[in-house]
Design brief:
The protein has 186 residues and is α+β, with helices and mostly antiparallel strands. It is 24% helix and 56% strand. It has 3 helices and 10 strands; from the N terminus they run H-E-E-E-E-E-E-E-E-H-E-E-H. Strands 1, 2, 3, 4, 5, 6, 7, 8, 9 and 10 form a 10-stranded antiparallel β-sheet that branches. The radius of gyration is 22 Å and the shape is globular.
Length: 186
């Protein structure tokens, strides 16, 4: 009886530990204010004209840019404007690493006459090994969002979840422990 209780408590503790630490770290690329280009938002469209600026990852800096695009608004509820199917080509370079892909912008919220907030995804088409090793490998679809102020990019981010190596070690040791308990039982 004591063995069964010890086994059950050990398994419960293992599951609790795994669920508590199995959340992924987040690797983020921060998009700084645009140094050139404009972003125009109206109730019927979002227009991008040669937007570029500085990009940051930790203490490293580089630049980003996306080309011209005109995206129609398909519906509006309050200040939320849903956007038509779109793909805005984006390039990010930080140090020796470069990646490119497409923003697929889902919607923007017109927060005031000067401020709009966009949400969507970034589909990586190509990346150098430095970005690929951080969760931005070709084919990855990661989250993105950014804010505009007076027609310019104010700030934004491209975010990729990356599993912690410790999580894999914890799961592996948990599986080994469970296998050991089951082996002794049989």
């Amino acid at each position: 009886m004591a063995r069964k209780l010890t086994f059950a408590l050990s398994l419960l503790l293992l599951v609790g530990l795994m669920s508590g630490v199995s959340f992924a770290n987040v690797i983020q690329i921060t998009l700084g204010p645009s140094s050139q280009g404009t972003i125009t938002t109206t109730a019927s469209f979002a227009q991008f004209s040669s937007v570029s600026g500085f990009a940051y990852q930790g203490s490293n800096s580089g630049n980003y840019g996306f080309i011209n695009g005109h995206i129609p608004v398909t519906s509006t509820v309050g200040n939320l404007h849903n956007l038509a199917t779109n793909a805005e080509f984006v390039t990010v370079s930080i140090g020796p690493d470069t990646m490119s892909g497409f923003f697929t912008l889902d919607a923007f919220a017109q927060l005031s006459s000067h401020v709009a907030a966009f949400v969507g995804t970034f589909t990586v088409q190509g990346s150098t090994p430095g970005f690929a090793s951080q969760g931005f490998k070709s084919g990855a679809v990661v989250d993105t969002d950014f804010t505009t102020y007076n027609g310019h990019m104010s700030s934004g981010e491209i975010v990729a979840p990356v599993p912690e190596p410790a999580t894999f070690a914890l799961i592996g040791s948990g599986l080994l422990a469970t296998a050991g308990f089951l082996r002794r039982k049989m």
